[in-house]
Structure formats: structure tokens, C-alpha cells
Design goal:
Elements: E1 25-29, E2 33-38, E3 59-64, E4 83-84, E5 90-94, E6 99-101, H1 111-115, E7 133-135, E8 141-143, E9 179-183, E10 188-190, E11 193-195, E12 201-203, E13 208-210, E14 223-225, E15 237-240, E16 249-253, E17 271-272, H2 280-283, H3 344-360, H4 371-380
Helix pairs in contact: 3-4
Length: 384
Amino acid sequence: MCHSNDIAGIDDYNTTENDNHICELDYEFNETHIIIEANGFPNHDLESGPGCCASAQDHVWMIPLEPTNDTGCDPTEGSEGCSMAPERGPIAFAVNGVSIYGPEDGPGGDAVAGQEGKYEEDRQHVWLGICHGHSGPGGDYHYHADANCVHWHADEAADETWRDYNIDSSRQVSEHSPIVGFAFDGYPIYGFVGWGEDGETREMTSSYRLKDGETGYNGIEDYEFISGMGDLDACNGQWGTTPEFPNGTYHYHTTWVNGEGDLGFPYFLLCYRGVAETSNADAGQGGGDGGGDDPDCSGHGETWGPGIGPPPDGCGGGPPGGQGQSSESGLIAIPWFKSPPDSGAVVLSLLTLAVVTGSRFESSPIITESASSTSARDRAGIAL
């Protein structure tokens, strides 16, 4: 989605120079998974926040081509029996390859609640920048909420910059929101707006609220799930139709409000409806200085890597000493390594990239024509 040669370099507004960062993302697939390599820079200008500064990462994300429900999980009743998303670190990834984190920040509070003035964070200076993102240890830029800015673009003719992005622009209920990311179980994460049980377009609401007397200072434990209070279940998702899945699929939503009009904790997701690819929790931590003995990262392209499998623990997404970036020239390359299978998940991935590309960047004819790519093109309404 970052593949136009016309893209200006990405700037971190917390530095004094124009950083000219480059958003890079590659993907390929095998018989069971799609594998995404990304350097962690978004397709928009950013604010690193107190954890300045964002740096290139070695993200390797793997999601199943065909998500499988966790049979022990019934999120309509609660999160018991479901695999919980990690409290810290990546829980999903955005369509630009950037990490999506859960609600908790480093000190353990709800980062969004603190940002919105629900409590005063006195343990560590924390604030969220553009699109509710910031950088953490190791320079890993990530979102704690929203991420809908991946589909927004500044109107340069009106002298807009990325600081003019407003979350309310993504909450308009005129149409169903596009996909902003994917959970580690392979199910898509849509923006704020979806279709209710009556088929009407509406902003989706969370079914979590603060416990009596709590503020979010203690993070996740300050919240309780009230079934039916909002539109979504305990994982912050629902089964239903979407523009890409007219026959229905499980999917998550970003949320800004709950069913009572208060903050929409957990903002992305809190548990996984499907069977999650657990290697992502480690593979998304590349780029930082882990300390200790260096892991054995040999075997890239032979025993691990795109199309083979995730990296060993402690290794990033590329060969030892590298940043896991595309070998193609330019700002981004998203090549096909073979014709894609006729899989709804792969079509969905292509569609997402196409829609995001159309929102700001020029699309590039680099994807091989096939039944799946034609379907994606027709649904998106733009040529890939």
C-alpha cells in the first residue's frame, strides 16, 4: 500500500529534521498462510511521542489464508475460553504493516483513557500522537486506537497536513468503513462504521465499561464486559456481512464509544475469535535491543522467511544484519511470487491494499492478473 513512486518521505514531527522515512511492505504466501514483511513505518507522517524516535523494524506477520474459529470461545457471552490478546506488544497489524497494540501503555494504564483525561498518568510520561500512535522501546511505532488514518490523506490544496487528521472524519456513518488491519487469527479489522443487525449503517459500539470507581489507571482490569450493552462481543467483533463478505464473516471493529456513549475500550480487540498465529507476538518485536546472547538467525530463506515460516525467537524479519526491507528498488514493492490461490482471505488482502492505495497514492500495475486479482479489482472499483 506504500508503493507509489510519488510518495513523499514520512516525517516524524517530534524531530527537528525532515526524516524522510520510507514505508516498506512486502508479502507472499504459501499453502496455508500469507506472510507480510514490513519495516514498521506508516504511510503517513507521525508523532513518536515521548518514546522518540520511530526506527525501522523487522516485522514478519503471518496470518492464515482461511481463519478457523476457536471452538472453545463464545465471545457473545464473555472472553472465558477465548485466547486473550497480549496485554503488551503487538496484537494485530494495520494494512500499512504497522503494529497494533492493545489498550495498555508501558506503565500499565489504558493509554487512550489517559490521553482523554480519564486519569492522570503519574508513573511515566505517555501521550499519543497522530492517529493515536506513538513509538515504544526499540522504536516500534504502533497504534493504540483508531488507525483509520491509513485511509485518510491531507488536502495539500487546502494547506492541510497530517496534523489536521481528526478521528471524527472516520466516524461518518454514510458508508461501511474499510479494513484497517488484520488480527493474528486472520480475521479483518474494520473501521468504526459497520452494518447493524437491521442492515443499517451505524457506528459500532463496544460492550465494555469502566467498573464503578475505576478510571483506566490499572488498564484492562478496570473494565467489565456487559453483554448486549453495545454492538460488539467480548473480543470487540461480530459475525455479519461486510462489503467484502456478502455471505458473512467474523470481523472486528475499531471502536471509539461504548453502548453508553463512554470510551470504546478496547479500541481494537481484546481476545481472538479465531485460532491466532502466536508467532506474531515475537515476530513483531524486531528492531529493538533485546540484550543478552544474540539468537541464531541463520537460515533465512532456507529454514525461515517469507513463504517458509516465522523467524527464530529474537530474530527480525530479514537476514542477519539487515532491516528486512524489500530487495526491490523504490519506496515499496509488493510483488506476486506466484499466481494467488482462489482464497477469500488473499482477495481480501489485495482489496485492502487497493482501497488504501486509492485513498492517497497512485496504484501500480505490479500484481499479476488472475481470477482473484480481478475479483479484488471489481469489488474495489479501481484497477490494481
